[in-house]
Amino acid sequence: MPWHAVVLLVVAGLAGVASARVGSPPAFDVVVLGDAGGLAEDDLTAFLLFPAGSDIGIALDAGTLHAGIRVALAKGAFASLPLDPSGDVSAEGQVLQKHVAAYLITHPHLDHVAGLVLSSTDDTPKPIHGLPPTLDVLRDHVFNWKVWPNFTNEGVSPVLSRYALMPLASGVAHDVPGTSLRVTAFPLSHGGTGSSASTSTAFLVESDGQSLLYLGDTGPDAIEGQGRLRALWTAVAPLVRAKTLRAIFLEASYPSDHPDEKLYGHLTPRWVNAELGVLASLVDGDDPSSALRDLPVVITHVKRTLARGEAPRARIARELREANPYGVRFVLATQGEKLEL
Question: Which member of 10, 122, 214, 307 has the lowest number of beta carbons within 10 Å of its beta carbon?
Answer without folding.
Answer: 307
